[in-house]
Amino acid sequence: MKIYLDNAATTKVFNEIKENFPKILDEYYANPNSIHSEGQKVKNQIEKARREIAQVLDVSYENIIFTSCATEGSNTIIKSLIFNKKNKDEILISPIEHKSVLVPARFLTKFGFKLKYLKVDKDGKVDLDDLKRKITSKTALVCVVHANNETGVLQDIEKTGQICKEKEILFFSDTVQSFLKEEIDAENIDFLTISGHKINAPKGIGVLYAKNKDFLVPLLHGGGQEEGIRSGTQNVSGIIALNKAVNIWAENKDKFCEKIKNLRDSFEGKLKELISDIEIVSKNTDRVCHISNIIFPKVDAQSMLLALSSRGVFVSSGSACSSGTPTPSHVLLGYGYTEDEALRSLRFSFGVHNSFEEVEKAVKIIKEVFDKFYTFY
Ligand code: PLP
User: Fold this and answer.
1) What is the distance in A from the centroid of ligand 1 to the CA of 194?
2) Which atom of ligand 1 lies at the shortest distance from residue 195's CA?
3) Does the pLDDT at position 32 exceed 90?
C-alpha cells in the first residue's frame, strides 16, 4: 500500500501525459532550432505552449521563458540584479521564501547587496506596513512567495505588487505552489516562476515570466534559445507535457481544487478528532488548498516521518528539498515558532490522485505511529 501525501514536493504525472509521451518523443524529436520543416513543426509546439500558458496567466506570450525548473527561474531573476545594480543594492525579502529564492538572494551579499527581511506574523502573513517602511531609494527588488510550500499560507501579492509599483520597485513572486490553484493577477508582478512537476507534468520543465525581459541576464550563454535568456536546446517533450498539464488544470481548476481542499479539510478534521492536541499551522489564515502543516505534541517529526514511510504513508518534514537535514524549518521559525515546535511538525500535501479512502487510512496509521512515539518521548 502506498499513500502519497507529499504533493507539494512533487506530483504524479497525469495519465493523459504518460500515455501520450512515447508519441510526443516519436513525433517531435527534431531540434526546434533547425530551420527545416521537422524543426519548425517542433518549434510550433513550443510556441503553442508559450501562447497557451501566457493565456492562462493573462500575460503576453513573448514574456514567457521556458526553463528547467523554478529554481533556475529564481536564480536568473535574482542574479540579474548584479548586472543591473546602479545604486540600488538592497533586496527586501520575506524570511519564509523557498530556499531556491533565499539562497541566491544571500549569494548576492558577495556582490555588495544587503538583504532586509520582512516581518512575518505568527499566522505566516508578511507585514505589508513593514514592507512600506523598509522600501528606500536603494531597494532593487522585493521577493514575496505567493503560497508558502510548507504551510500553504497565501500572501496578498496583489497589494504587495501595488505597493511596489507605486514606488517603482521590481516585484518577484514565486508562484510555484499557487499556480492554477489560486488566481494570480500578474498586472503588478514583474517576475514569477512556475514548476511543471508541481502540476502533474514531468520534472525538468519550468516557466519564468518576466514583464521586462531586458532586465534578465542569462545563467547559460550559448545558442541563444529562448531569446538568448536561456540558451540550450529546449526540453521539447517537457514543454509539450507542461502545456497539456496546464490545460488539464485550467479546464478542471474548480473541480480539482474543491476535491483537494475537501481531502485536506477532512484529513485535518479526522486527525484532530483522534489527536486533540495537534496544532494545525495557520488553520484560520488563507491557505492554498493542498497543504496542511501539523505540529504534534511531544514527538520528533523526523522519526515519525520515517515510521510513516515504513507503513506506506509518504509525507515531509520541513520542506522536501531539505528533508534529511534535521534542522528546524526556517519557515516555522520565521513565523515565531520555537525550534522544538518546528521539529515536531510534519507537512501533509494532497493532490488530484488522492482519495478519501486514503485519507481515512492515513489518519489511522498516523494515530498508531503517533501513539508509539508519544509514549517513548
Ligand atoms: N518554490 C517553491 C515554493 C517550491 O515549493 C519549490 C519546490 O519545492 C520550488 C520553488 C523549486 O521548484 P523546482 O523544483 O522546479 O526548482
Assistant:
1) 8
2) 15
3) yes
Share of the chain above pLDDT 90, in %: 95
305: enclosing H helix or E strand: helix 301-310
Enumerate residues 6+ apart whose C-beta is below 8 A from 71: 100, 206
| Residues flanking ligand 1, CB < 6 Å | 69-71, 98, 100, 145, 149, 174, 176-177, 195, 206, 320-321
The CATH architecture annotation of domain 3-10+253-374 reads Alpha-Beta Complex (3.90)
In sequence order, what are the beta bridge partners of 192?
173, 209
pLDDT value at residue 324: 55
**Which tens digit of pLDDT belongs to each residue from 293-337?**
999 999 999 999 999 999 999 999 974 444 455 799 999 999 999
Is 280:64 a contact under the CB 8 Å cutoff? no
Strands (E), 156-276: 170-174, 191-195, 206-210
Residue extent(s) of CATH 3.90.1150.10 domains in the chain: 3-10+253-374
Q: Where in the chain is the domain with CATH 3.40.640.10?
A: 15-248
Atom of ligand 1 lying closest to residue 177 CA = 3
- C-alpha span between 125 and 282 (Å, rounded): 9
Pocket residue to mutate for ligand 1, from 65, 93, 98, 146, most atoms within 8 A of Cβ? 98
Give the count of beta carbons closer than 10 Å to the beta carbon of residue 28. 19
pLDDT attached to residue 338: 96
- Write down the pLDDT at residue 313: 98
Q: Is the pLDDT of residue 173 over 70?
A: yes
pLDDT, tens digit, 9 for 90 and up, residues 273-302 = 999 999 999 999 999 999 999 999 999 999
Kindly give the distance from the C-alpha atom of residue 207 to the centroid of ligand 1, in angstroms, as a whole number.
12
- For the domain made up of 15-248, give the CATH fold: Aspartate Aminotransferase; domain 2 (3.40.640)
Closest ligand 1 atom to the C-alpha of 72?
16
What burial letters (b/e) apply to 115-130, b meaning 16+ CB within 10 Å?
ebbbbbeebbbbebeb
